[in-house]
């Protein structure tokens, strides 16, 4: 029979699938002997069954009974006992952290009778007991029974107005007792029944509500954003309540064993005296720095520091912690390996190596290509000394600017119009998620580094400044020091320093990019972040089996990619060389009526091409350069049919006909295709237009010979696009070989000839094609397009949103390789190609070459290299190393 409930002492940190992150780590802390309140965890499996069947799995209720009885025995109290009640919290906790997205109900077990028992436990503190009770009704009403939260807020507001006070804390026990009566009325009005007095019924309903909160809109949205699978379900933790709101010797806080923003060692966190758990994370009150706890309660502070180092030593990583102090007694409510910024991830991984906690391979698992990409974003250039409007807490780094908006809905609407916005809020809550996703950055006036805004922004890699408490936020403007900033005004926020500027501040390259470029400001050379990146990149390069090349088609791009560590060019798209001033030459080629006219046009293009190639070969001296023969349909270089037709008609009407325009129009008509992507392009062009490929091959070979003559070492590889049958390749190859032999002579230059594998038929006949190819390069853009039958230029906006919504795929297959379908074609082609020609060189040059997930796949398949845009080269290098360990 399944087991659905685990006591904390029965679990461990490796059981996250079943117990969720929170439950698994509470179990781990319990078994480490740390002060964790008693409790038990209901598994994700129980949640999945509840969501599938709409009721509890058989046997769950009995198991809960058993574990509750054991908890009551340990605590020496019975749930909701009028004389001396045990109260519990009911907390969600999925495998992956989803901060604030699901529900929690505190103080379960309170009712009209046990509220007095609680007061006695608290030394006759009626105010505390009635405040706890009204919180339960409010939380339970909202979470379990969908009572609109505003109605409770209104009742609370009215109680304060009636009494003529401003703060909740100014309400006394009698006021709160009256408020409970008012809350109960709100509850009954909306639910049609009284607030449940039976403690066990409260518990059951709260557990079900937490299960259901897995499918709350904001949780669904968060999962989609973070790519968390939709079917995992949440575990539910039932934990004996401890109270941080019992007076000044109580409190609650959040701590990090290192700074999650920068990785610096030290004591980081926020503390709120006389407050209950959620108050800190909600960012509702401004908190004290954790270090201040030393002055308030040195004993608890020292104990906490001791526990923090125990946890670091145990997890070998940065941990974050939630704790509560109840009348001088410290309790641990949660720990986990903490989220951190990209910079902190690198810095901490390097620190942990220094401290002997982890080795280099392990360190590589602690960072990712996505984080490295974030570190390559530009920073603000403060050379002009822009005046800072105010300063908050740098909660999630980055440099963002945009128009100010004050609501999530406005942020979403503005983003849909393509405007960049900064979402400005007093604090954020989970309902703001859609706006946070849409905005460039988030600015809040309240809350610390652990507030909702900070945690969620860091998780998304979005710039965030929080707790800028000089800001007064109104409905459609905010003011700071007499300066008013209105909706639509542009501000800039620096998520590293916490500075806020009026207007848009210019940006400069990040120090990590400077490091890759080799022009790092010497003052930054020893920065821990740069040193960490250097250390981990060096290790990744040493570990990687895949080489990383770049897609580049100009000398400067090639040079930059080489500085970024590219080991050659995997794709030089020659068509760019047909644009700009050269368009006219291409037109001449297309309009040519005789061999002579065509040869003249080609003859004019050839030296230009040769010069382009020489530039690139020079920059990549000694490294392979794959030049792809022209691929797109030639009509892409001609004017549009509609425009030209109108132009010719107008000219005719005016009696100003031009023979050239009419010939052009006829050519455009002749070349018009309904499905150009499946039409006259790639190798087909080479077979149809005499001399076109020959001109390019000659230019490549001549450029290589020219570099060799300069003493360089060119390594050209000619790549034929869109091949679907070996005969196509053989035909092109025969002509190319003749030209190469003629040009190269005895210069010693060697030119390889290979093909792209981007038509499914090529993948399926790879064994035959390999007979005529010295290398394959997978063009996964076209291969995806043709395998799925998705037009790569149209689908993203047209219907992918619906596919993503339905979960047909979790991410566009043009972004991250579809392993099952397109990946299978890659596997077949790699295996059959290599079987036919052992040692066949295999690479990939589609966009997927720079996608971290896909890089891991290409490593698995055993390709020789991936090729990606220059800026993604470091990301691919890191991922190639990570894939190999
Ligand atoms: C491809 O199809 O994957 C490819 C690299 O070629 P292009 O994107 O130029 O069609
Ligand atoms: Mg292609």
From TrEMBL:
The keyword ATP-binding applies. Coiled coil: none annotated. Residues 420-498 form the PEP-utilising enzyme mobile domain. The keyword ATP-binding applies. The active site is at residues 452, 845. Substrate binds at residues 573, 628, 758, 779-782. Its cofactor is Mg(2+). It comes from the Bacteria. Mg(2+) binds at residues 758, 782. Keywords: ATP-binding, Kinase, Magnesium, Metal-binding, Nucleotide-binding, Pyruvate, Transferase. Residues 62-286, 294-345 form the Pyruvate phosphate dikinase AMP/ATP-binding domain. Residues 538-881 form the PEP-utilising enzyme C-terminal domain. Its EC number is 2.7.9.1. Belongs to the PEP-utilizing enzyme family. NCBIfam families: PRK05878.1, pyru_phos_dikin. This is Pyruvate, phosphate dikinase. The lineage of its organism: Bacteria, Bacillati, Actinomycetota, Actinomycetes, Micromonosporales.
């Amino acid at each position: 029979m399944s087991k659905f409930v685990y006591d904390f002492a029965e679990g461990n940190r490796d059981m996250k699938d079943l117990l969720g992150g929170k439950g698994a780590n509470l179990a781990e802390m319990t078994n480490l002997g740390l002060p964790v309140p008693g409790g038990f965890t209901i598994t994700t499996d129980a949640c999945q069954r509840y969501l599938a069947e709409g009721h509890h799995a058989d046997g769950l209720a009995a198991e809960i009974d058993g574990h509750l009885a054991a908890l009551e025995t340990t605590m020496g109290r019975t749930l909701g006992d009028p004389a001396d009640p045990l109260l519990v919290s009911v907390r969600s906790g999925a495998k992956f952290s989803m901060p604030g997205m699901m529900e929690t109900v505190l103080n379960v077990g309170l009712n009209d009778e046990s509220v007095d028992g609680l007061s006695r436990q608290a030394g006759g503190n009626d105010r505390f007991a009635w405040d706890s009770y009204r919180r339960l009704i409010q939380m339970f009403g909202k979470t379990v029974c969908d009572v609109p939260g505003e109605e409770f807020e209104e009742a609370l507001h009215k109680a304060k107005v009636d009494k003529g006070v401003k703060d909740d804390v100014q309400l006394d026990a009698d006021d709160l007792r009256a408020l409970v009566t008012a809350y109960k009325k709100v509850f009954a009005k909306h639910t049609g029944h009284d607030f449940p007095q039976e403690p066990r019924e409260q518990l059951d309903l709260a557990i079900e509500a937490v299960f259901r909160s897995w499918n709350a809109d904001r949780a669904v949205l968060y999962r989609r954003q973070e790519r968390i699978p939709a079917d995992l379900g949440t575990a539910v933790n039932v934990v004996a309540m401890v109270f941080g709101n019992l007076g000044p010797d109580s409190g609650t806080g959040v701590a990090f064993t290192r700074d999650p923003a920068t990785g610096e060692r030290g004591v980081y966190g926020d503390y709120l005296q006389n407050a209950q758990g959620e108050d800190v994370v909600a960012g509702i009150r401004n908190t004290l720095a954790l270090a201040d706890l030393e002055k308030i309660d040195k004993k608890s502070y020292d104990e906490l520091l001791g526990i923090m180092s125990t946890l670091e030593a145990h997890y070998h990583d940065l941990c974050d912690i939630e704790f509560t102090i109840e009348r001088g007694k410290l309790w641990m409510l949660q720990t986990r390996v903490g989220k951190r910024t990209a910079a902190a991830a690198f810095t901490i991984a390097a620190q942990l190596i220094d401290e002997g906690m982890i080795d280099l391979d392990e360190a590589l698992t602690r960072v990712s290509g996505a984080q490295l990409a974030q570190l390559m974003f530009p920073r603000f250039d403060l050379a002009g000394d822009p005046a800072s409007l105010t300063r908050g807490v740098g909660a999630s780094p980055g440099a963002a600017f945009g128009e100010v908006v004050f609501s999530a809905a406005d942020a979403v609407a503005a983003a849909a119009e393509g405007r960049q916005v900064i979402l400005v809020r007093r604090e954020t809550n989970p309902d703001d998620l859609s706006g946070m996703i849409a905005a460039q950055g988030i600015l809040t006036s309240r809350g610390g580094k652990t507030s909702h805004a900070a945690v969620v922004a860091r998780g998304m890699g979005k710039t965030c400044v929080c707790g800028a408490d000089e800001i007064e936020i109104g409905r459609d403007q905010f003011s700071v020091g007499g300066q008013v900033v209105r909706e639509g005004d542009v501000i800039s926020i620096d998520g590293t320093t916490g500075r806020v500027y009026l207007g848009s501040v210019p940006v400069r390259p990040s120090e990590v990019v400077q490091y890759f470029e080799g022009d790092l400001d010497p003052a930054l050379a020893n920065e821990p972040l740069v040193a960490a990146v250097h250390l981990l990149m060096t290790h990744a390069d040493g570990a990687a089996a895949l080489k990383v090349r770049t897609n580049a088609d100009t000398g400067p791009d090639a040079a930059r990619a080489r500085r970024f560590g590219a080991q050659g060019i995997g794709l030089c798209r020659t068509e760019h060389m047909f644009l700009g001033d050269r368009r006219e030459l291409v037109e001449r080629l297309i309009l040519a009526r005789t061999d002579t006219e065509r040869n003249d046009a080609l003859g004019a293009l050839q030296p230009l091409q040769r010069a382009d190639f020489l530039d690139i070969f020079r920059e990549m001296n000694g490294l392979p350069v794959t030049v792809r023969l022209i691929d797109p349909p030639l009509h892409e270089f001609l004017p549009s049919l509609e425009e030209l037709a109108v132009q010719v008609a107008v000219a005719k009407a005016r009696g100003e006909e031009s023979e050239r325009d009419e010939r052009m129009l006829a050519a455009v008509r002749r070349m018009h295709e309904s499905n150009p992507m499946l039409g006259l392009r790639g190798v087909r062009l080479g077979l149809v237009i005499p001399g076109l490929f020959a001109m390019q091959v000659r230019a490549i070979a001549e450029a290589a010979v020219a570099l060799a003559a300069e003493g360089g070492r060119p390594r050209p590889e000619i790549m034929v696009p869109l091949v679907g049958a070996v005969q196509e390749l053989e035909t092109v190859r025969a002509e190319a070989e003749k030209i190469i032999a003629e040009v190269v002579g005895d210069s010693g230059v060697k030119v390889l000839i290979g093909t792209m594998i981007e038509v499914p038929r090529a993948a399926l006949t790879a064994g035959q094609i390999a007979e005529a190819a010295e290398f394959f390069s997978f063009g996964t853009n076209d291969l995806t397009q043709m395998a799925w039958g998705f037009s790569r230029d149209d689908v993203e906006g047209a219907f992918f949103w619906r596919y993503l919504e339905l979960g047909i795929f979790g991410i566009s297959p043009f972004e991250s390789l579809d392993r099952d379908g397109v990946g299978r074609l890659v596997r077949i082609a790699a295996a059959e190609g290599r079987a036919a020609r052992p040692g066949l060189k295999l690479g990939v040059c589609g966009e997927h070459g720079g996608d971290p997930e896909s890089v891991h796949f290409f490593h698995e398949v055993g390709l020789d290299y991936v090729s990606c845009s220059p800026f993604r080269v470091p990301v691919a290098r890191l991922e190639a190393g990570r894939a190999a360990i």
